[in-house]
Amino acid sequence: MRNILKPQSGTQSGTAIPAKKIINFLENWCAEENSNKIHA
Known about the structure:
With 40 residues, the protein is mainly α. It contains two helices and no strands. The protein has helices at 2-5, 19-39.
């Protein structure tokens, strides 16, 4: 997981995921989990 968060110097491939994308994904996932608990 640490390798994904490290900026890739030289080559920019699909394996290098920007940290902002990961943060957005986690925030959206947490929001969905919270809403699911409320509706349950």
